[in-house]
Amino acid sequence: MISNFFGKKPSSDSAGNGGPEFSPEKAEKFFQHARVVHESGNYEYAMQLWLRGLQQDLRMVTGLEGYVASAAQFVNSPEGKKRTSKDTRTAISGGGEVNKFLSALFDWTMNVDDKSAAAAAAVKACEAIAKLPAGDTVRKVGEWAYAASRNDPKPKKDNYARMMRALDSMGLPDLAVSIGEEARRLDPSDGELSNELKMLAAKATMARGGYEKTGAEGGFRQNIRDAGKQKALEEADRLSKTDDVKDRVIAAAEVEFTARPEDIPTIEKLIKALRERGKPSDEERAYTVALQTFERTRIFKFRQTAGDIRIRQARRKVSSARQMLEAAPGDETVKSIYETEKNAMLELEVQELKLCVENYPTDLTWKYELGRRYFELNNYEEAIGQFQEAQNDPRVRGRVLHMLGLSFLRCDLADEAVETLRRALEVPDMTPEDQRDIRYDLCCALQVNGETRRDLTAAEEAEKIASQILIQAIGYKDIKARRESLKKLVAELRAK
What we know:
By secondary structure, the protein is mostly helical. Among the domains are: 24-214, Serine Threonine Protein Phosphatase 5, Tetratricopeptide repeat (Alpha Horseshoe), CATH 1.25.40; 226-277 and 288-297, no CATH class; 299-357, Methane Monooxygenase Hydroxylase, Chain G, domain 1. 74% of the residues lie in helices and 0% in strands. It is built from 24 helices and no strands. It has helices at residues 24-40, 43-56, 61-75, 86-90, 97-110, 115-129, 137-150, 157-169, 173-186, 191-209, 220-225, 227-237, 243-259, 264-277, 280-297, 300-327, 332-359, 365-376, 380-390, 397-410, 414-425, 432-452, 456-472, 479-495. The radius of gyration is 30 Å and the shape is elongated.
């Protein structure tokens, strides 16, 4: 489709055999046409043009970003549900490291529904571009590849380690360290990896502070003598900081951020400092930085941070409303305010937890937490769906089965509630308090069957459980009154 556009297709030599001859003028011609085509809605053709432009000059970040934007539109379009045409793959066929990178980039952007495949392609792209003089594109690819790997539902140490080494060879030790830490988190026992990380951390420090200029003015010895820097480092590491220290830490973090606004560790440092001081303006600043970083890198932890800030703000509103209600328990207006703020908080938590479930599909604890919020919003059927999936996680199985049983009970499914609560009692390592709570709810479910079906066996079991709880804790909930009502029910049913 585009082999004759602005001249013939680059040869494998000009398209990268380790030393491509880039032409920004030719690249920009392709990019200009790509923008027009993208706006017309022909996203696949735009992709081809972006790719051909990148063959002409891989250093142009705008071309990379343009391709990614067109690819995203394409995969979300009706045409994207089908395979791409042969013309798109042909645009990047041939030998050379440039085409190897572009092929990996293509596979990466086309695998949006398979995050593991996308992560694998991102690693290949990272390794390919490490062999090329690609300028600012290198860091951009490294950051995106980092984000893709973090979104992999089955993260692999080897993927992170390969990216770490590629990024180190790109001259990006700071980003390499961040990625290497992910690899070490997956396998803390890997001593060789730990040693690599120590060397990388030292290299990153040197790169940031000019330590490689040992003996020179402003070099290592000068930095060591710089009491201000020493003090700043000490202050940043203190667990307990005065307001004055917090102010200085933020000021230093802002200076670093201004100098390196795309550096992930620098961004994380700024957000942490802002949240520690915690002024309303700090929270808004941290929220904005986190959200903008997520939008740029697609690293989900930054979206999570932004959501967490909003949730904390909502919880404070609920806390204030609760205090007002405690001070004026009979005031219906105050009660309404409290209920409104509480429901708003729960709805916000649901939104954020849905994103966590989507981005961490194998971590079932997120489904449990989402189910709890649905339960508190009285959306019991949605809660049941989440709990049913989360019950396979041994870390939360007991709590999940308990909440699942309660949800069945609220849906007037007493038989299912009884069976599920019995299963909850079988889970090992439950605390005595948890067991008592489950037994109480089982008692309630059995009582329902006793009353609605006139089931003597269920009523007798419920009475027995109530009696056992009463012996242990007479002040527990309404157990004394419930024991009396069950005693009467059993007597009624026996009299028949």
